[in-house]
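Hi R.,

Here are the chain sequences for the assembly we discussed:
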Amino acid sequence: MAGPARRGSAPASPVTDAVPVLKTYKLFVGGAFPRSESGRTYPVRGPKGEFLANVAQGSRKDARDAVAAARKGFRAWSGATAYNRGQVIYRIAEMLQGRRAQFVELLVTGEGLRPKAAESAVDAAIDRVVHYAGWTDKIAAVYGSSNPVAGPFFSFSTPEPTGVVAAFAPPEDSLLGLIGVIAPIITSGNAVVVVASSERPLPAVTLAEVLATSDLPGGVVNVLTGDAAEIGPHLAAHADVNALDLTGVSGDLREALARTAAGTVKRVYAPTRTPDFAAPPGTARLRAFLETKTVWHPTGAVSLAGGSGY
Amino acid sequence: MTQTDKPSSATDVARRRTHTPLQWEYAPAPESAATGRIRPRYQMFIGGEFVDGHGGDVNTINPATEESLAAVTWSTTEDVDAAVRAARTAYEKTWSKMTGLQRGKYLYRIARGIAERARELAVVETLDNGKPIKESRDVDVPTASAHFFYHAGWADKLAHAGFGAAPRPLGVAGQVIPWNFPLLMAAWKIAPALAAGNTVVIKPAETTPLSILVLAEIIADAGLPPGVVNIVTGAGDIGAHLVNHPGIDKVAFTGSTEVGRKIQASLAGTGRKLTLELGGKAANIIFDDAPIDQAVEGIVNGIFFNQGHVCCAGSRLLVQESVADEVISKLRDRISTLRLGDPMDKNTDVGAINSAEQLGKIRELAAAGEAEGADRWTSPCPLPDRGFFFPPTVFTDVSQAMRIAREEIFGPVLSVLTFRTPDEAIAKANNTPYGLSAGVWTEKGSRILGMAAAMRAGVVWANTFNRFDPTAAFGGYKESGFGREGGTSGLAAYLDTDDEGAA
Amino acid sequence: MTSPDDSSGTGTGSVAVAARPGAVPPPRPALPPHLADAVADEAALRRFLHGLPGVDPVGVEARAAALATRSIKKASKLAALDLAISMVDLTTLEGADTPGKVRSLCAKARRPDPDRPDTPRVAAVCVYPDRVAVAAEELAGTGIGIASVATAFPSGRSSLAVKLADTQLALDAGATEIDMVIDRGAFLAGHYGKVFDEIAAVRDTVRRAPGGVRLKVILETGELATYDNVRRASWLAMLAGADFIKTSTGKVSPAATLPVVHVMLQAVRDWRAETGEQVAVKPAGGIRTAKDAIRHLVAVHEVAGTDWLDPFYFRFGASSLLNDLIMQRRTQLEGHYSGPDYVTVD
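And here is the predicted structure of the full complex:
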């Protein structure tokens, strides 16, 4: 079932068999699936060059809408309890598991993976989501602290999400790489605008369908398809974007986006080594979009007898 | 209950006892300048040696008198190159091969050395910077020593910092620090870098090179291996050369957002780790149930500590309308008691502005506040007839749109805005590209925690302000920079914490 | 009431005055409406006192500690020492107080430093009611005040009738200042009206005495336990007509501490801002050194203001403090340190 039903593919018997209903691949912004405001699409082709689908070609204004949606999503998501975020993310794993075959099929027919490889990629992606679901309520304990300051104050430091992150998914690893990028971003309470792999966007859009029917608030994950070189500079310059994850871009584009990001002092995560998303994830991605907030309050001195020594 | 008695007539009030209160002027209580042992000339510190730079000598002045304090050798780019080479050699040959415990022992020595020469350093700092001696004595110098002491203990415990079992240092760190806390910022930069196993090349601000060069003596006396800490003097061009130097692995900068942006842009694509501690425009929020007298102290401390030359200064006072008149009235009374003048006098509360240039910026922004229609109030304190001074100033009737509400003034100028509801306070407090610090004053516990969570700022002081400690992370959200100083997150800034699998 | 006084200083240098013979408290101005409303009934009083801004202990202690680092040198130190001497309520409050002891104390009050006749006299001596007569005799015509504790000092645990009789005893014997204690038990139990009424009753008794006797109200801050309570008790006392608010009896620890005095100075400052009436402050107990005294004066100067730098408006309730002040005064004048054997022990 459910691979990308190719336009060109006809039913076995044109007379008796049902003609497959084809899917229109759109953007995922604020929990909805709009077309690009530009009206543009581009064709996505399979491993043998065969036509798979027309995909929305995101524009500057789509990026703008996605950032606005992400800002709204951020407010809801960062305000949720860590337990709730964990449950929502775990729910995503459940839904992925339910759609496992669909994703395997996507990777096999759409990207030419062998079935075994496709299955292991999808399983790894599900495992990755489960892994991060369990992180939500541990981050503060692991990266926060009570600070033994030299004075009558209670001081604590707690990690908080950075805000709206614009991410660029790795071009080659369409599902596992995508999840490897966005899961750590949202785990700590950030919202993300992710630019999917330009050549292999179909799993991203299908993942969006999963997210749309999960309990994830609208706008927490926004998926743009199109050309990173076209959309990227607008995201990098957007003043309401707090951080960039440049995993999926390299070379001159990466440098240009990083330079643009400096205009509003965005946090930039740009790993120098090519990540192995199949390997157990470390914590670097999780930490990349955290801010440490330190809070101070006077303490002690509840009574004159205890507090005054002058 | 009985009612208290009333005056029999209006004239009773007029007949109130009159007297001549004592006009009690504190006699000058100057710290001795001799304690600073200021020398006529200072060299910079490269490879464990005090050396001359190739940029000639530049005089550093005492901003309180505008008189020359000492000559300081100035570096050129070739001196920076030499310093980076020395740091690289030290990193490869000695520092990275030493055990953490041994590294830590050097840091402990430096901490002790600072404490032993504390008064001398305080005097040097005050003479070169213009800050009141009581602040350099009670805050800058002891906190600098504390930073070395705290980080010394980390050197052999990095495996427990939460970044993996064997976190690696980055290599050579290039560090550029500002003029507002010259010695303290040096400590904030050098101590964690060394504890994590890096070597450093650090450049003090153009106008405040002296205290770090005294620190260099302490470092030399501590026997720190040559090249582990290198200090180059100079202006912005030297800083730019340092942060863009291909021989360094890590850049740490504290200063203006404007320069921070440039540094970030210039490092784009290099993969070099960068931490930035930049400007701020902190909101200090006073609710109607605040402990008003302490809040007034907190406001004063928030904006007049170090003449307001503090990136986390509480420069925007957000006061609930229902108590605004009372707070502003008490604030003016309190500010009127601030003693402005000779920074070397132990009773001085507000010292000199660090430079003519900074004084010009403060004046310009204050003039803009007036031009934009805010109501300006100036402390009646007398101003010395020489030196760079600016009286404590409060603007009321300020709106969010005015420059004095949006731009960092970095001086003793407070902008007062009002709010009606907590939501409005949050909205106004966060309505800035900056996000370094915030203050909240209320006696209601749940509101303290709720407001602390709502602030998009790296440090939230509740019922206090401007507290610093090496155990407590400090740093900004948004355009106030990224990376932290202090605590484990401060350590992370100097470690290679990338634990992601690579293909 | 008689007209306020006019007396000029008798101290040295820039010190304005010692105690004023015949000085009387100024007539009480009308309370502004919200304060008049505050004492309408017990519930209103309670609402008012609990509506006062809270005190953050760490903040007030930090401020007090910061001000305590003021460096007072040379002429300003000498002026402060003279002022402090002129503010001393030289106190003996022992079960063992004899007429001889009181006479000796009065001699000290008149001439704190016999070797240096220019030393200011103290503001008052402070004794138990049954020793007032001796003090009155010894101090007649000196202008030095005769303060008497009263109202079942130090605990205040007796009936109002006994307290008023105690007060009257002191007044009849010639006391010019009454140091009453509040009922801390009632205060802590939240019976603010009872505390108020007692103060008001004592005040009425005091007001009826001739010569403008002033009423000091001892809060016994060490038993009030929190700064919030110190602030509330200060306002309560002022609402009830106190001429002075005083920290402690000296029989309870902690007695006068700088941060407590800060809170009380804030209270009198705010009271004047609201009513126009200037209430005096008296820390008592625990202030033993000139250094402590000067720190208090700095607090007076910078928290309440210059108007309180006057023995009429600020006192130190102390016994051993005086000798240290004298010793430090000599050090200032003679240029070398003095020693305890060179000041009289009384």
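Residues 220 and 248 of chain C are 4 Å apart (CA to CA). Residues 1-22 of chain C have pLDDT under 50 and may be disordered.

Let me know if anything looks off.

Best,
T.
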